[in-house]
Amino acid sequence: MVNYYELLEISSDATSDEIKRAFRRRAKHIHPDLGNNSEGALERMRDLLKAYEVLMDPYKREVYNTQHRAIFGVSNFDYREFLKERTQDHQSQSKLIFFDLLHHREQDALRLYETLVEQKNFDLSKHLDREDFMDCAFLLAEEFEQEENFESAFNLLKVIAEYELEKPYFKHFFEEVLVRLRNLINAVSGKLSFATQVDYIEELLSLGISPKENAFYLKKLSELYASEHDRSRAQYYLKEALKLDNSLSGIKKLKQSLGI
After folding, report:
1. Which SUPFAM superfamilies match (predicted)?
2. How many domains does the chain have?
3. Which of 38, 106, 120, 217 has the smallest set of CB atoms within 10 Å of its CB?
4. Residue 90, domain member (yes or no)
5. What is the helix (H) or strand (E) element at residue 96, kind and residue range?
6. 200 vs 184, 220, 242, CA distance in Å?
7. Parent domain of 46
8. Residue 139 and residue 146: Cα distance in Å, rounded?
9. Residues 144, 63: one domain?
10. Which CATH number fits the domain that encloses residue 236?
11. CA separation (Å) from 126 to 63, 94, 95, 159?
């Protein structure tokens, strides 16, 4: 008997919506037409479709649960505990981070992620598919920013931006990523060293996201150099910003102080 709950990576009390989401997520990994050429992929996809059909039907699910309890000897498959036990498997631990973020265990997710990144060669993006990684990274960045762990938040958001520019995924929601990056750059003002702030901005400028975004970051460079009393560099960066966006907001006082 195939353990449908384990196959879908859900608990046996999962809701219909959770089953649907799990089915879509697992299908991306298993379906032969989506690039899975491994042996047995077609059979696993058939099992996945059968699991979806059975668990979405209340009567079939009740019959299956009776058999499930008799064969596996448990009444409730706990997906989270299943992942937690696989401590040496980075893929399982990465899935646990994502699972906890989606189930109001944000602190558990952050602490596990920090533990893993301290280990040599751990890379979250290697253990989740591209879309799941981007979603997971965004949620992690939100939590890290709230804790004022700006370095972790910045690094995650920057990778999301790089991925999005390489191949769109967030599409209409990418603006939210860009807003969070701008807010983070504003938030680190006075909290991180001048050199670190400059490094962050220059890294974002190197991505070439858009003229509008570059104008914002050039303005921030101008403000930073003005705060360091480097008038010539401050003037230069503000002029470059205005070349890209002549309607740039929030620069009236800066222009006056720099004589532009």
Report:
1. Chaperone J-domain
2. 2
3. 120
4. no
5. helix 90-102
6. 10, 11, 21
7. 4-77
8. 11
9. no
10. 1.25.40.10
11. 38, 9, 11, 13
- CA torsion 111→117→122→127, rounded to 10°? 30
Q: How far apart are the first and last CA of the chain?
A: 75
| Residue range 27-51, pLDDT digits in tens | 877 765 544 455 567 888 899 999 9
Sign of the C-alpha dihedral computed for residues 50, 52, 55 and 58 taken in this order: negative
Q: Indicate the residue among 13, 48, 77 that finishes a domain.
A: 77
Arithmetic mean of pLDDT over the chain: 89
136 & 23 share domain: no
> Residue 145 in contact with residue 153, Cβ under 8 Å?
yes
Question: Which has more pLDDT, 107 or 130?
Answer: 107
Instruction: Please give the single-letter amino acid code of residue 24.
Output: R
Same domain (yes/no): 51, 152: no
| Together in a domain, 135 and 71 | no
- Whether 137 and 248 map to the same domain: the answer is yes
Same domain, 17 and 135: no
SS3 25: helix
Lowest mean pLDDT among 46-55, 125-134, 167-176, 251-260: 167-176
> Which tokens in the block code for residue 14?
């999962």
- Both tokens of 250, joined, read 């929030």
pLDDT tens-digit readout, 246-256: 888 889 999 99
Total length of the chain: 260
Q: How far, in Å, CA of 182 to CA of 170, rounded?
A: 17
